[in-house]
Design goal:
With about 150 residues, this protein is mainly alpha-helical. Helix content is about 55%, strand content about 10%. The protein contains four helices and two strands; from the N terminus they run H-H-H-H-E-E. The chain has a two-stranded antiparallel sheet with strand order 1-2. A hairpin with a 6-residue loop joins strand 1 and strand 2. Helix 2 packs antiparallel against helix 3, helix 2 packs parallel to helix 4 and helix 3 packs antiparallel against helix 4. It is globular and about 50 Å long. About 15% of the residues are buried. The model has no long low-confidence stretch (mean pLDDT about 85).
Amino acid sequence: MKSRTLLAIAAGSLLVSRLWAANAPAVSYTPTPEEIEQITTNLAAFTSTIDALRAAKVSDDLLVDVEVNARAVQNVLRFREEFFTKSVVQQALRAISQGMQRARQLQEGHPTWPTATGSVARAMRSRVDGTPQPYRVMIPASYNPKNPMPLY
C-alpha cells in the first residue's frame, strides 16, 4: 500500500513538473544596462520617499499600499527571469510612477484610493515576514461608507 502511494505521488509530481515546464514562459528579454539603470535610479528615489513617509509616521495601513509597488519592482530586479518581454521594463517604471503618485497623495494628506470605487489595488502587511502583499478589491459605485453593506 505504501509503495502504491509513493508511486502515485511520484507520478503526480512528475506530471505537474512537466506541465509547468511546458507552460512556463521562456526568458526572452534581457534588459539593457541603461534600462536597469533607469529602473534602479527611479526605484532609489521612490524608496527614499517611502522612508520619509515612514519617518513621518504615516499610517501603515496606507503606507503599505505605496510600499507594494516598490516591492514588486525590487522583485523584478532581483529575479531577472521575470523580464519575460521588453514591456516588463515599462511595467516596472509604471509601478514606480503609480507608487510615487500615491506617495505624493500621502505627503499632501489627501489619499484618494481608500475611498475610490471600482477595481482598487490595495495591500496588506504580512504577519509572517512583514512584506506588503497585494490584493485587488471591487468597490461598488453605490458604496457609501456611512451605510454598512454586507460582504457577500
